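Researcher: We are triaging several targets before committing to wet-lab work. For this one, the compound of interest is adenosine-5'-triphosphate. I'm pasting the protein sequence and the ligand SMILES. What I need is the predicted three-dimensional arrangement of the protein with the ligand bound, expressed as structure tokens, so it can go straight into our comparison scripts without reformatting.
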Amino acid sequence: MSAATLLSVENLTMRFGGLTAIDDLSLSVPAGKITAIIGPNGAGKTTFFNCLTGFYKPTTGSVRLAHPKRGEMRLETMTGHRVARDAQVVRTFQNIRLFPKMTVLENLIVAQHNRLQDASRFSIAGLFSLPGYRKAEVEALKTAVHWLDRLGLTGIADTAAGDLPYGTQRRIEIARALCVDPVLLCLDEPAAGLNPRESAELNTLLLSLCREEGIAILLIEHDMSVVMNVSDHICVLNYGRKIAEGTPLEIRNDPQVIKAYLGEDDESEPATLIGGNA
Ligand SMILES: Nc1ncnc2c1ncn2[C@@H]1O[C@H](COP(=O)(O)OP(=O)(O)OP(=O)(O)O)[C@@H](O)[C@H]1O
């Protein structure tokens, strides 16, 4: 694993009965960069996320994380809980999974339940607000306030998450993931349902998280205005196999990629599919 590689996926395969959703995938994700995973519907993108975040146990292959403080971790052997808590690989989902009746602030505090549980030592001590637990609560609040401010959400901190517009809820999901101090932030279609202005704001946010906070981002996205404008590197899947990888410019012009998206006989202009200025 080279010094700059954060995640190293080797020969990953995931089968569901007779269906091979991920087929012998090898991929390196560098530290401090944005890597996009793209591909047509059913290509295996979410399955890939599920394999590296402990939701699925891959059929074969390895997923090694070079954790900056804890050394190498084998994610494919870990439960989802440990991937988030110990490896600090944190994800969002295609469908929004906020607690709609809780306020935005409460959603961000609940996300830090691991820290609070650890401080309570899984005992009644936490309920009596013993000092260690109280300190952890204050830290959780500070972290939530920090990310609310950073993502421009402070004004809606006390609003029920479910009452907010869809685009704002997507932003809250990212803020919630950031509260866990991710080493790798995995975003599953963060631009789904966003209007063009919100997509452009998402681009600015992702670039700033990467460039200013040094957070590595793994991004599944269909919106090419996001993919092409923020990605340092793109990996293209089709039927579970990697068919191409490279810079946005390389991917935009790759005949295999255009064919995978548009089909063999389709002669239409690929610019409509692969947008952006990169
Ligand atoms: N739990 C499962 N059981 C059986 N088949 C599954 C399961 N999860 C995914 N699949 C199948 O694996 C293939 C890849 O699905 P996946 O959701 O990973 O694709 P995707 O690239 O994320 O698609 P989309 O862009 O539509 O979200 C599909 O054929 C899907 O039906």
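Researcher: Any quick observations?
Model: DSSP finds ten helices and ten strands in the chain.
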